[in-house]
C-alpha cells in the first residue's frame, strides 16, 4: 500500500514491493553509440584501445606504460590463431620492466600467463596498488591478489 | 680589515683636526651671530647666516679644502691598493698550477678583499671561503637571495654579481660573490685547478669581461664545490637546492592533489612519453582525501596513522597515496628519462604566473616554463571570524581539517583531551563527528557538534531526512546542537569557551572548524585569470579551459556544466573526473564536461548514501522510499563491491586484497525507521537535476542517465521504478 505525504516543498512517497512490480513507463532517451562526448570503455568505437580507461588503472601511465601499451596493442591486433602468440617479445620486455618496480607491480604466481580472454583480464596480472578512478561501467582491479 | 684600519688611522688625525677646526669656527660664528642678532635683528633677516662677512668666507674655504684633501687622499690610497691587488693576482696566475694551493690562493685573495672599507662583507666572504671547502647546503640560507637561477645555465652567472655590486670599490667583493654560486653548484669532477684563472679574470671591474669568463666560471662551478655532494635531487626533499628544479616541463600541473594526479595519468595515457611535472606546496605525494575523515578513523591497525593504509570492511587494504614513490620520476631526471614520466616537486609554491611568457615562478625564485599548464590548487579550509579574532590561544586549539598532518594531529589530540567540539554540519563536520563519536565511549571523550542549520546535512538533504540523519549521528555518541550560531570564543582557565548567539555556553578543550573551503585563486592576479564572483574559483569554460594553454580542475574550478549550468564542485569524484577531462583536453581532446561526477557519504555503519548532480535542499524534492532490510547498509555495499571508495564500485571487480586479515562479522542491523532506503529526486523547473540514492547502492549509472536526459517526467514514481529499490 503506497501512500504519499507532503512536507512543505518536499513530497514523500512510500511504496511496497508490489507497487513497483509493474514495469516503469518512464521514457529514457536512446543512447547514441557515436556520441563524441561520452566516455568509452576499454575499446573505442573505431576499434582502438582507450588507454585512458579507468579499468586499466595506472598500467598505461606508469614507468612501464610504454611496454604495456606495446604488448597490449600487439595482442589486441593479433590475428594469430592463438591470440597474442606473436607478441611474446613484447610481453617479455614488459615483464622485465615490471620486475624493476616490484612495489608498483607486485609479482604474482599467475604473472607469467598472458592476458587471456581479452581486455578485462589484462589488469589482473600485476597492477599498481591503488588507483582511484571514476566510472564508466567497466571492470577495474586496483589491487593484485 | 687591516686595510680599513690603516686607512682610518691615516685619515683619523686629519679628520680630528678638521672637525675641531669646524667646531671652533662654528662656535665663534655662532657667538658672533648671536650678538649681532641681538643688536640688529630686523635688518639682517634675509641674509642671516651668510651675512657674517669675512670670517665666514674663510670658514667655508677652510672646510672645503679639508674635505677635498681628505677625498684625494682616500682615492689615492684605494687605487694604490687596487694596483697592488691586481699585481698579486697576476703573480698567482703565473705560479705553477697545483690544486690545493690555488684554492688557498683564492682563499687568501678573498681574505684580502675583506680589507676593503666595507665592514659587512667579510662575514659573507668568509662564508664563501668555507663554502669552497665545506658543505654548500649549509651556506644556502645565507646566499639564497643571490643565487636565483639553476646553475646549469652558464649565462646566468653574469647576472648574479649585479645585485651585489653596490659601489665602485667592490670589485674584489664581486669576485667573491661570484664564487658563492660557483661553490654552491652541484659538483661533478674533482678538479679544483681551473678556479684560479677564473678568479683572476673575474677581478676585472668591467662587467663585459665577467660575462666572457662566465662560461669558464660555470664549468668551474661544477668542480669547485667538489668535496661536498651536490644537494640531493630527491623529489620528496623540500629543502634541496634549486638545481633539482627542471627549467621546462611540457606539462606543468600546479597542485598535487586528486585532480592533478588524475590529469597526470590521463596525459600519460594519451601522450606516449609525456613528461609531466607536478608542483605542490605539500610535502606529501598525491593522496586521496576521503579516508582521512572516514576509513582511517575506523582502522584497527595502530600503525595506520603512520602508514596511512586502511583496511576496508572486506579486508582489502590500500594506501591513501595514489601511487608509491617508485612510480614517480625525480624532477631532475624528468627531461632525460627515456619514456617520460610523472615527477613531483614537493614543498614549492607557485607564486607568479607569466601567461604571455608561458612560465611560472616558484617561491624560491626558480622559474619553470611550460607548454600546457593545469591549475589544480584546490583550496584552504575556511575559518570562523570569531575564532580568528579570538587570539593565539584559541587558534592553537583549533583544527582546520584538510591534510594528512591535520588528520595526524587531530587523531593525537583525540587521545589526549576530554572534550572536542566540531563546528559545522556538512559532510566533513558530520563525518568527523561520527568518527570521533565512535571513539568517545572507548576513551572517555565528549564529542559535541554544533551548526546553524536544523539538522545534519541541512543544506543537502530535505528536512525530514536531515532530521533522521541527525538522530543517527546522535546514536553514534555525538551530542548534536542545532540552530547554533557562534557568537564568540574565548580561552579561559585552560578551556575554550564558546558562546552562542542564543546565550548557551559550551566549554571544551579543542575545536574542529569544518565550515567550508576557500578556493585558492592566488594566481588569478598575475595570470590575469577571471575569478567567479558567485561560486568562487577560477572561471573556466565547459572544457575546463581558462585560456589558451591553461586549464583548471578540481575544487578550484568554476566550470560550465552543459546540463546543469555553471557550478563549482568540491567532491573527490569530481576532482577525478575533471582532472581526467583536463588531462584529455591538454592532449587535444576538446571534450566538454559530460560525465556527471557523483559523491557519497557514510555516517556510521547504518547510514550511507550516494548522490549525483545538484543536491541542494532548497530545491523541491520527491522521495520514494521502501522499507530497508539488513542487507541495505553501507557495510554490505562495500563488502559486495570490495571498495570503500564508492565512486569506484561501478568499475571494481573483487580481485583480492594486499593482505587479507580476518574481520569480525558485523552485527545484524535492525532497521525500524521509516526512511530505510529510497531515491530522492531534486527538481528544478520540473526537471530532475539531482538524485540521492539513500541506502541503495550500485545504481549510479541509472541516476546518471536520468540527469543526462534532462527530461520532464510526469510521474517520478515511474522513474523511481527504474531503480528497483526493493531489490539488493
TrEMBL record, chain A:
<dbReference type="GO" id="GO:0015035">
    <property type="term" value="F:protein-disulfide reductase activity"/>
</dbReference>
<keyword id="KW-0560">Oxidoreductase</keyword>
<feature type="compositionally biased region" description="Low complexity">
    <location>
        <begin position="128"/>
        <end position="145"/>
    </location>
</feature>
<keyword id="KW-0811">Translocation</keyword>
<keyword id="KW-0676">Redox-active center</keyword>
<dbReference type="GO" id="GO:0033108">
    <property type="term" value="P:mitochondrial respiratory chain complex assembly"/>
</dbReference>
<dbReference type="InterPro" id="IPR039289">
    <property type="entry name" value="CHCHD4"/>
</dbReference>
<keyword id="KW-0496">Mitochondrion</keyword>
<dbReference type="GO" id="GO:0045041">
    <property type="term" value="P:protein import into mitochondrial intermembrane space"/>
</dbReference>
<keyword id="KW-0813">Transport</keyword>
<dbReference type="GO" id="GO:0005758">
    <property type="term" value="C:mitochondrial intermembrane space"/>
</dbReference>
<keyword id="KW-0653">Protein transport</keyword>
<keyword id="KW-1015">Disulfide bond</keyword>
<protein>
    <submittedName>
        <fullName>Mitochondrial intermembrane space import and assembly protein 40</fullName>
    </submittedName>
</protein>
<feature type="region of interest" description="Disordered">
    <location>
        <begin position="100"/>
        <end position="145"/>
    </location>
</feature>
From TrEMBL, chain B:
<dbReference type="InterPro" id="IPR016156">
    <property type="entry name" value="FAD/NAD-linked_Rdtase_dimer_sf"/>
</dbReference>
<dbReference type="GO" id="GO:0046983">
    <property type="term" value="F:protein dimerization activity"/>
</dbReference>
<dbReference type="GO" id="GO:0005634">
    <property type="term" value="C:nucleus"/>
</dbReference>
<dbReference type="GO" id="GO:0003677">
    <property type="term" value="F:DNA binding"/>
</dbReference>
<keyword id="KW-1017">Isopeptide bond</keyword>
<comment type="subunit">
    <text>Monomer (oxidized form). Homodimer (reduced form). Upon reduction with NADH, undergoes dimerization and forms tight, long-lived FADH2-NAD charge transfer complexes (CTC) resistant to oxidation. Also dimerizes with isoform 3 preventing its release from mitochondria. Interacts with XIAP/BIRC4. Interacts (via N-terminus) with EIF3G (via C-terminus). Interacts with PRELID1. Interacts with CHCHD4; the interaction increases in presence of NADH.</text>
</comment>
<dbReference type="Pfam" id="PF07992">
    <property type="entry name" value="Pyr_redox_2"/>
</dbReference>
<dbReference type="GO" id="GO:0043068">
    <property type="term" value="P:positive regulation of programmed cell death"/>
</dbReference>
<dbReference type="GO" id="GO:0071949">
    <property type="term" value="F:FAD binding"/>
</dbReference>
<dbReference type="GO" id="GO:0005743">
    <property type="term" value="C:mitochondrial inner membrane"/>
</dbReference>
<dbReference type="InterPro" id="IPR029324">
    <property type="entry name" value="AIF_C"/>
</dbReference>
<dbReference type="InterPro" id="IPR023753">
    <property type="entry name" value="FAD/NAD-binding_dom"/>
</dbReference>
<keyword id="KW-0520">NAD</keyword>
<dbReference type="Pfam" id="PF14962">
    <property type="entry name" value="AIF-MLS"/>
</dbReference>
<feature type="region of interest" description="Disordered">
    <location>
        <begin position="220"/>
        <end position="243"/>
    </location>
</feature>
<protein>
    <recommendedName>
        <fullName>Apoptosis-inducing factor 1, mitochondrial</fullName>
    </recommendedName>
</protein>
<dbReference type="InterPro" id="IPR032773">
    <property type="entry name" value="MGARP_N"/>
</dbReference>
<dbReference type="InterPro" id="IPR036188">
    <property type="entry name" value="FAD/NAD-bd_sf"/>
</dbReference>
<keyword id="KW-0809">Transit peptide</keyword>
<keyword id="KW-0053">Apoptosis</keyword>
<comment type="similarity">
    <text>Belongs to the FAD-dependent oxidoreductase family.</text>
</comment>
<feature type="domain" description="Mitochondrial apoptosis-inducing factor C-terminal">
    <location>
        <begin position="582"/>
        <end position="709"/>
    </location>
</feature>
Amino acid at each position: 500500500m503506497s501512500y504519499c505525504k507532503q512536507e512543505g516543498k518536499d513530497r514523500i512517497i512510500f511504496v511496497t514491493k508490489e507497487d513497483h512490480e509493474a514495469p516503469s513507463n518512464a521514457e529514457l532517451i536512446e543512447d547514441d553509440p557515436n556520441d563524441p562526448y561520452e566516455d568509452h570503455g576499454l575499446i573505442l568505437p573505431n576499434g582502438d584501445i582507450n588507454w585512458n580507461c579507468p579499468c586499466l588503472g595506472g598500467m598505461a601511465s606508469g614507468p612501464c606504460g610504454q611496454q604495456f601499451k606495446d604488448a597490449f596493442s600487439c595482442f589486441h591486433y593479433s590475428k594469430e590463431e592463438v591470440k597474442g602468440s606473436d607478441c611474446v617479445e613484447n610481453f617479455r620486455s614488459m615483464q622485465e620492466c615490471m620486475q624493476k618496480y616490484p612495489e608498483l607491480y607486485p609479482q604474482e604466481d599467475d604473472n607469467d600467463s598472458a592476458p587471456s580472454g581479452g581486455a578485462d583480464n589484462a589488469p589482473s596480472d600485476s597492477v599498481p596498488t591503488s588507483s582511484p578512478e571514476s566510472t564508466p561501467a567497466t571492470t577495474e582491479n586496483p589491487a593484485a591478489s | 680589515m687591516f686595510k680599513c684600519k690603516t686607512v682610518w688611522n691615516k685619515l683619523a688625525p686629519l679628520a680630528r683636526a678638521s672637525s675641531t677646526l669646524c667646531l671652533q669656527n662654528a662656535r665663534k660664528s655662532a657667538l658672533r651671530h648671536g650678538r649681532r642678532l641681538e643688536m640688529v635683528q630686523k635688518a639682517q633677516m634675509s641674509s642671516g647666516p651668510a651675512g657674517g662677512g669675512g670670517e665666514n668666507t674663510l670658514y667655508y674655504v677652510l672646510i672645503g679644502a679639508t674635505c677635498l684633501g681628505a677625498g684625494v687622499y682616500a682615492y689615492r690610497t684605494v687605487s694604490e691598493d687596487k694596483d697592488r691587488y691586481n699585481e698579486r693576482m697576476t703573480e698567482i696566475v703565473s705560479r705553477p698550477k697545483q690544486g690545493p694551493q690555488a684554492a688557498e690562493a683564492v682563499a687568501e685573495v678573498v681574505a684580502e678583499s675583506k680589507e676593503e672599507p666595507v665592514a659587512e662583507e667579510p662575514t659573507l666572504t668568509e662564508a664563501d671561503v668555507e663554502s669552497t671547502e665545506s658543505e654548500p647546503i649549509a651556506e644556502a640560507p645565507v646566499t639564497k637571495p643571490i643565487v636565483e637561477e639553476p646553475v646549469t645555465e652558464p649565462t646566468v652567472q653574469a647576472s648574479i654579481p649585479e645585485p651585489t655590486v653596490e659601489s665602485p670599490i667592490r670589485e674584489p667583493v664581486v669576485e667573491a660573490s661570484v664564487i658563492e654560486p660557483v661553490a654552491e653548484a652541484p659538483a661533478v669532477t674533482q678538479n679544483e685547478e681551473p678556479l684560479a684563472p677564473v678568479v683572476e679574470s673575474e677581478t676585472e671591474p668591467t662587467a663585459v669581461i665577467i660575462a666572457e669568463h662566465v662560461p669558464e666560471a660555470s664549468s668551474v662551478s661544477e668542480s669547485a664545490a667538489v668535496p661536498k655532494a651536490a644537494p640531493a635531487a630527491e623529489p620528496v626533499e623540500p629543502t634541496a637546492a634549486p638545481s633539482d628544479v627542471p627549467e621546462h616541463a611540457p606539462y606543468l600541473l600546479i597542485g598535487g592533489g586528486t585532480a592533478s594526479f588524475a590529469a597526470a595519468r590521463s596525459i600519460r595515457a594519451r601522450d606516449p612519453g609525456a613528461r609531466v611535472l607536478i608542483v605542490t606546496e605539500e610535502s606529501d605525494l598525491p593522496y586521496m582525501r576521503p579516508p582521512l575523515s572516514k576509513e582511517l578513523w575506523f582502522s584497527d591497525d595502530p600503525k595506520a596513522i603512520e602508514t596511512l593504509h586502511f583496511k576496508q570492511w572486506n579486508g582489502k587494504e590500500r594506501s591513501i597515496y595514489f601511487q608509491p614513490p617508485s612510480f614517480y620520476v625525480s624532477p631532475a631526471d624528468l627531461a632525460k628519462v627515456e619514456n617520460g614520466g610523472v615527477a613531483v616537486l614537493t614543498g614549492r609554491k607557485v607564486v607568479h604566473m607569466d601567461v604571455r611568457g608561458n612560465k611560472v615562478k616558484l617561491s624560491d625564485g626558480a622559474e619553470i616554463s611550460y607548454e600546457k599548464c593545469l591549475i589544480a590548487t584546490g583550496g584552504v579550509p575556511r575559518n570562523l571570524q570569531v575564532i580568528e579574532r579570538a587570539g593565539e590561544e584559541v587558534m592553537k586549539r583549533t583544527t582546520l581539517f584538510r591534510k594528512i598532518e591535520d588528520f595526524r594531529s587531530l587523531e593525537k589530540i583525540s587521545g589526549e583531551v576530554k572534550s572536542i567540539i566540531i563546528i559545522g554540519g556538512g559532510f566533513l563536520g558530520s563525518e568527523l563527528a561520527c568518527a570521533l563519536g565512535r571513539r568517545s565511549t572507548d576513551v572517555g571523550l565528549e564529542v559535541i557538534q554544533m551548526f546553524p542549520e536544523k539538522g545534519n546535512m541541512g543544506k543537502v538533504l530535505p528536512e525530514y531526512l536531515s532530521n533522521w540523519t541527525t538522530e543517527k549521528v546522535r546514536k553514534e555518541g555525538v551530542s548534536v546542537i542545532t540552530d547554533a550560531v557562534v557568537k564568540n570564543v574565548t580561552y579561559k582557565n585552560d578551556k575554550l569557551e564558546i558562546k552562542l548567539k542564543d546565550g548557551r555556553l559550551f566549554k571544551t578543550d579543542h575545536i574542529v572548524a569544518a565550515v567550508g573551503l576557500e578556493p585558492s585563486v592566488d594566481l588569478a592576479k598575475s595570470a590575469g585569470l577571471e575569478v567567479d564572483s558567485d561560486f568562487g574559483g577560477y572561471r573556466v569554460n565547459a572544457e575546463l579551459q581558462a585560456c589558451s594553454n591553461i586549464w583548471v580542475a578540481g575544487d578550484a574550478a568554476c566550470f560550465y556544466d552543459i546540463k546543469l549550468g555553471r557550478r563549482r564542485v568540491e567532491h573527490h569524484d569530481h576532482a577525478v573526473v575533471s582532472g581526467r577531462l583536463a588531462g584529455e583536453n591538454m592532449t587535444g581532446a576538446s571534450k566538454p564536461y559530460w560525465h556527471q561526477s557523483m559523491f557519497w557519504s557514510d555516517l556510521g555503519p547504518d547510514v550511507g548514501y550516494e548522490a549525483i548532480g545538484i543536491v541542494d535542499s532548497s530545491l523541491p524534492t520527491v522521495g520514494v522510499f521502501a522499507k530497508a532490510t539488513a542487507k541495505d547498509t553501507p557495510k554490505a555495499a562495500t563488502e559486495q563491491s570490495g571498495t570503500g571508495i564508492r565512486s569506484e564500485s561501478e568499475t571494481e571487480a573483487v580481485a583480492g586484497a594486499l593482505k587479507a586479515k580476518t574481520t569480525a562479522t558485523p552485527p545484524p542491523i535492525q532497521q525500524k525507521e521509516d526512511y530505510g532506503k529510497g531515491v530522492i529526486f531534486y527538481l528544478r523547473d520540473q526537471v530532475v537535476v539531482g538524485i540521492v540514492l539513500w541506502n541503495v547502492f550500485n545504481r549510479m549509472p541509472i541516476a546518471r542517465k536520468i540527469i543526462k536526459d534532462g527530461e520532464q517526467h510526469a510521474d517520478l514514481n515511474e522513474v523511481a521504478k527504474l531503480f528497483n529499490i526493493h531489490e539488493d
